[in-house]
Amino acid sequence: MLNDIESVLVSEKEIDEICTRIANSINADYKDSGKKLVLICILKGSLAFTCELMKKITLPVEIDFMKVSSYGSKTVSSGVINIHLDIKRDDMEDVDFIIIEDIVDSGRTLSHLVRYLKERGANSVRTCTMLDKPDRRKVEFVPDYSGKVIPDKFVVGFGLDYDEKYRNLPFVGILKPEVWGGQ
Ligand code: PRP
C-alpha cells in the first residue's frame, strides 16, 4: 500500500491535533445545550475520523450511522443523494445533530443531509469534516467544523478509499497518479 502513496498530506500527529481542536470546540459549544448530542457517522469514509473525534468529546454523546451516495456516476454527479441507511428516531426535536464527514467535495452530500434532518424536525444540525476541498464545490456550502482545507488532489487513507482500498492507512496521503490512471 505504502508504495502507492506519493506523499503524506495529513500525518497521524496532525489528525490527532485536528480531532483535539474540533472536539474542544464541540465540548464548549454544546456544554449547556440541554438537548441530546448525536454524532452521525456517514459511512464508510468517516468511520476512522468519527472514532478518533468521539474519544475526545467529554460530553454525553450518542453515535448514529447513515450511508448515502450520489445518484449515478460520482464524477458527473446529478446532485441527487440516495440514502441507503437512515437513522430511526422519534425524538428529533430533542436532538442536536453533528454530521461527521471525512471530506467535503462538491458539497452536495452535506447540504442535502442538513436539509433532510431539519425537515425531519431536528432541534439543530451542524456539520463537521476532517478535510475540505473548496476548489471542487458545486453548491455553496461551508462546514461548521473543519479539520483542514486541502488542494484538489486524489487523497486516500484514514477512511478515504480508492476502489475500497487504503481506508486503513493511519494518515491521509496523496495517491500516485499512475495508480488511479490520472496525471
Ligand atoms: C465521499 C465522502 C462524502 C462525499 C463527499 O463518500 O465520504 O460522503 O463523498 O462528496 P460531495 O461533497 O461531493 O457530496 P463516497 O461516496 O466516496 O462514499 P464512502 O464514504 O463510502 O467512500
Rg estimate, integer Å: 16 Å
Task: Give the overall shape, derived from the CA principal axes.
Answer: globular
Helical fraction equals 10-25%
Uncertain stretches: none
End-to-end Cα distance: 19 Å
What's the domain count?
Answer: 1
Q: Count every helix, treating DSSP H or I runs of 4 or more residues as helices.
A: 4
Give every kind of bound small molecule, once each: 1-O-pyrophosphono-5-O-phosphono-alpha-D-ribofuranose
Main β-sheet, in a few words? 6 strands, mixed
Level-2 CATH architecture: 3-Layer(aba) Sandwich
* The first-level CATH class name: Alpha Beta
Binned strand content: 25-35%
The helix-and-strand class reads alpha/beta
Order of helices and strands: EHEHEEEHEEEEH
CATH topology: the name is Rossmann fold
Average pLDDT value? 94
Write out the strand line-up for the largest beta sheet, numbering strands in chain order: 4-3-2-5-6-7
What does this structure look like?
With 183 residues, the protein is α/β, with parallel strands linked by helices. It has one domain (12-150): Rossmann fold (3-Layer(aba) Sandwich), CATH 3.40.50.2020. It is built from four helices and nine strands; from the N terminus they run βαβαβββαββββα. It has helices at 12-30, 47-55, 108-119, 177-180, and strands at 5-10, 36-43, 62-70, 81-85, 95-104, 124-132, 145-149, 155-156, 172-175. The strands form two sheets. The protein has a six-stranded mixed β-sheet, sandwiched between helices. The chain starts with a strand and ends with a helix. Residues 42-45, 69, 101-109, 161 line the site of 1-O-pyrophosphono-5-O-phosphono-alpha-D-ribofuranose.
